[in-house]
TrEMBL record:
Family, similarity comment: Belongs to the methyltransferase superfamily. L-isoaspartyl/D-aspartyl protein methyltransferase family.
Chief localization: cytoplasm
GO cellular component, one term: cytoplasm
Gene3D superfamilies, sorted: Vaccinia Virus protein VP39 (3.40.50.150)
Protein name, per record: Protein-L-isoaspartate O-methyltransferase
Subcellular localization(s) per the UniProt record: Cytoplasm
Pfam families xrefs: PCMT (PF01135)
The gene coding this protein: pcm
Organism per entry: Cognatiluteimonas weifangensis
UniProt KW Secreted keyword: no
Annotated keywords: Cytoplasm, Methyltransferase, S-adenosyl-L-methionine, Transferase
Record GO biological process: methylation; protein repair
Catalytic activity, reaction form: [protein]-L-isoaspartate + S-adenosyl-L-methionine = [protein]-L-isoaspartate alpha-methyl ester + S-adenosyl-L-homocysteine
InterPro entries: PCMT, SAM-dependent_MTases_sf
Length: 232
């Protein structure tokens, strides 16, 4: 007689990506001060485990950055939540409308772009490493998320589609990139890590209806550097 081994999802490791595990991450983000229900819902819905290597899938719902190859990382969920929330509340506080069109600099795994697309935004994303971009495109397509992307040095933004209601930069530069703030629409919000090494801060820049720019600091963060040029 053949023994029938019935593996439970947990035994297969699938439990590590279950709804219960995702809900635990959401509770953690709430405890970390994330309040926007739309953002929390997007994070609950988008399968982060599909944006990392299979070998790391069981860690996908930990609140931590994970390697995605080429020395790059998928951002920590709390950071993704914080930046996304800042784009929405930025517009409200400045008296502007909700953002519709958003530019992301640093596609990486595609996860941040997926969250923005899941929130109904029209997403444009730029990545300098061709191989990361190709993998990200496949994932986004497989999930049916409509994100426009290009292989380029994102420090020049995407002038053909500018201006943007929101811009999110997911790699750190020593100072705010002038070309990017220039592509921000009146009433728009830009969030970007600024600084080097362990001395980075998440800055939010808001442009009012008259084009006057104000800036605030959302706290310390750690990002990979914003680099020049392109790689295949
Ligand atoms: N938003 C990504 C985070 C990826 S890490 C995610 O959700 O996974 C930052 C990414 O920025 C890396 O993939 C890196 O290659 C990219 N990057 C760094 N400098 C860049 C530049 N000048 N233009 C475009 N992308 C850049």
């Amino acid at each position: 007689m053949t023994a029938r081994l019935r593996l439970q999802p947990e035994a297969l490791g699938l439990g590590m990506t279950s709804q219960r595990v995702r809900d635990r991450l959401i509770e953690r983000l709430r405890a970390g001060g994330i309040v926007d229900e739309r953002v929390l819902n997007a994070i609950r819905t988008v399968p982060r485990h599909l944006f990392v290597d299979e070998a790391l899938a069981t860690r996908a719902y930990e609140d931590t950055a994970l390697p995605i190859g080429h020395g790059q990382t998928i951002s920590q969920p709390w950071v993704v939540a914080k930046m996304t929330e800042a784009l929405f509340s930025g517009g409200q506080q400045a008296g502007g409308a909700q953002p519709k069109k958003v530019l992301e600099v640093g596609t990486g795994s595609g996860y941040q772009g997926a969250i923005l697309a899941a929130l109904g935004l029209e997403v444009y994303t730029v990545e300098r490493i061709g191989e990361l971009l190709r993998t990200a495109r496949k994932r986004l397509r497989a999930l049916g998320l409509n994100v426009r992307s290009k292989h380029d040095d994102g420090r020049i933004g995407w002038p053909e589609y500018a201006p943007f209601d929101a811009i999110v930069v997911t790699a750190a530069a020593p100072a705010l990139v002038e070309a990017l703030s220039a592509q921000l629409a009146p009433g728009g919000t830009l969030v970007a890590p600024v600084g080097s090494g362990s001395g980075q801060s998440l800055l939010r820049l808001r442009k009012d209806a008259d084009g006057v720019v104000t800036q605030d600091n959302l706290g310390p963060v750690v990002f990979v550097p914003l680099l020049s040029g392109m790689l295949d």
